[in-house]
Write a structure and sequence with these properties.
Distance between the termini: 34 Å
Strand content: 35-45%
Largest sheet: 4 strands, antiparallel
Number of helices: 1
């Protein structure tokens, strides 16, 4: 009946030249966010949480720790 339907997302590889442009400090919803690069990928930090960014397009990502996206 009301079974859970997962939202399957396909992660892609984004060119480093594009990802480099995203590094920095941002303000969204009156909160500070920081995008940094670590050895295993790019991370989105906000409110004490550091979450790996999983890209679905060159300018859209998701993370598994909390909902957020870059658009």
């Amino acid at each position: 009946k009301n079974f859970y339907n997962p939202d399957n997302k396909k992660e892609i590889t984004v060119a480093e030249s594009i990802l480099e442009k995203y590094k920095g400090i941002y303000v969204f919803e009156d909160k500070i966010a920081v995008i940094t690069k670590k050895p295993d990928g790019y991370y989105f930090w906000s409110e004490g949480f550091d979450s790996k960014m999983h890209f679905t397009t060159d300018d859209h990502f998701f993370n598994v720790e909390f909902f957020c996206c870059l658009q």
